[in-house]
């Protein structure tokens, strides 16, 4: 099963995958019926989550109901417990929106919610994050996850997100980080997909962030809080929701 899932993820184009997976998952949900794990995004519970991963499939990762992964369940729990996201009237920019969030966030009555992406047909606004087509001080909240490791200039992208946020606004900007690496590793001469995969963890990544990830976000103007939210949760919750136990949340604020 793990090998099959890795193979499918590597070979089938993403838009096809997203369309087909919806039906396949409905079938899988029946086989995974149970109550050992629970999804913080859709509320469904299962015997376990599905394995997922491009190279080596991680066990207990993908929710068969809403397709959330560990990191999505962590972000949603964080939003519920540590922010005003579900209560306050907020104007939100969601860059490269994750499939499991789009419909849910669109329906939230307190939000004015805008999705944006450079290519994804799931997003409403087509845009390049290096030049966000909105005026200064437009949004209360921005999400931009698993984007910064792909873009030409992550510092510029960060300062653009900062620019379009209102004073007092906040953003969550997550990326894969190699916590064992003191500084970010970039090498523009590495362009071959196989080489990129070897050096930067995925064939379409152009850098691998290190312990200075927060400093790079701060270069855009943000005050960055490295929130170890998941480290403080009871073990039972980390297991129940199958959360990424070592992931730091980068909570980025624009001063009032
Ligand atoms: Zn779910």
Listed once per kind, the bound small molecules are: zinc ion
Helix content: 25-40%
Q: Tell me the structural class.
A: alpha/beta
> Based on CA inertia axes, which overall geometry fits?
globular
Main sheet properties = 7 strands, mixed
- Beta percentage is 15-25%
CATH class of the largest domain: Alpha Beta
Order of helices and strands: HHEEEEHEHEEEHEEHEHEHE
CATH domain fold name of the largest domain: Rossmann fold
Assign the CATH superfamily of the largest domain: Vaccinia Virus protein VP39
SSE topology:
Blueprint: H1 2-11, H2 14-31, E1 33-38, E2 45-46, E3 50-52, E4 58-62, H3 70-82, E5 90-95, H4 99-107, E6 111-117, E7 125-126, E8 139-144, H5 154-164, E9 165-172, E10 185-186, H6 193-200, E11 207-208, H7 213-219, E12 223-227, H8 235-240, E13 249-253
The structure holds zinc ion.
Please name the defining characteristics of this protein:
alpha/beta, Rossmann fold, 2 domains, two-stranded antiparallel ribbon, 8 helices, about 30% helix, about 25% strand, binds zinc ion
